[in-house]
Structures are given as structure tokens and as C-alpha cells.
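Notebook B, p. 112. Complex prediction, attempt 2.
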Amino acid sequence: GESVGLHLPTLSVQEGDNSIINCAYSNSASDYFIWYKQESGKGPQFIIDIRSNMDKRQGQRVTVLLNKTVKHLSLQIAATQPGDSAVYFCAENIPGGYALNFGKGTSLLVTP
Amino acid sequence: NAGVTQTPKFRVLKTGQSMTLLCAQDMNHEYMYWYRQDPGMGLRLIHYSVGEGTTAKGEVPDGYNVSRLKKQNFLLGLESAAPSQTSVYFCASSSGQMGEQFFGPGTRLTVL
């Protein structure tokens, strides 16, 4: 079946650098995507979302890019901080459904 | 606002025992969801509800039942617990089909 997947299971970056977390999706009908952050022992927390009619959306220190041609989604975190260390999940809206389809997650580790 | 709350936070069961996990939200959301999260995996949808009195199966519904008697509550039941149900369970709610899902802090369940 079609699924949401992540290119890298772990990512280590130095404090102050920019981070890029990638996500590939295979369902061309998906029309909505979300990035979540999950800290250890906590529930996922919304970061940013994007609809399929957009290519880019910016938030505070975060940017989501959507490339529908190659079915690729990325999350960019500017000036990564220790508090950004967490697991990041991308999720897509299941077309015609009522729930999100989550990827397996990427662990981001920020080193001093 | 408390957002989404879950009780209990931790529970240990013996194989064959039953239990109910409670999820409550105070945001007047129509949609509610139960997910399970296993190590190295993303979130998998167990059951969901699109309104009071309605429930529907998700990706992994076997061994679980749910009820939505009140709009603010969504209960997840395990009638006869199995070791394969050892997991962290997350409840979420949202105002609509697309859009941010708000997650609870999770319930860590161990079945011996």
C-alpha cells in the first residue's frame, strides 16, 4: 500500500546550524501534510502544516517545502537549538479518510 | 484549557485482563482518535470518531473496542489483553477532517 516514509532515521546537527528533515510520500492524491515534533515521553506536538496547493510555508524558525513532482516534503529548522532535539514525524491526510497517515519518524540530535 | 488528557498514564496488565483507557478533550472537537506507537514506528490508527455516538475502525482495530457516548470523551477498551498490545497509546482530537490534531500525553501499557 501507499505510505509516508522518511529518508533518514537519525540526524545529528551542531547547535546553530540549519537542519533539514526529509519525507517522501507515495500517495499522489494526498492534499494536506503536517509536521509533528515528539519529545521523549510526550505526545506529538504540531509544528507546521501545508496544503497541496502550496509549495512553501514558513513559521517561526521552520519552513516546510512541498515538491509534488517528486512527492517530497521537507522541514527546515533554522539555527537549530538543543530544545529542537526530538523525533519529527511527517503525516499526510488520507484522501477520503478522516485520519492522518504518519511516517516512522526522524530523530534529530542537536550537539553543542 | 487542559487540551487533551488521558488516564491512566501507566498500567501493567496480565494477559487476559481487561481495561479501559479514557481520553477527554475540552476543545469541543468533533473528531477524536486513538493511536498506538511502538518502538521505531510511527503512529498507527486504532479507531476514530467523527462525532458523538459514532465510531469507526482504523488501521489496527483488532483486539480493541471504543465508545463515544459524550462528545468530550473517547474510551478505548481492551477486553482480553495480549502481550502484542504492549505499547504507548495516544489519543488525539481535531475540529475537522483536515487540520491540526491535538494529542494527549499518552498511556504506557505493558501486558505481561
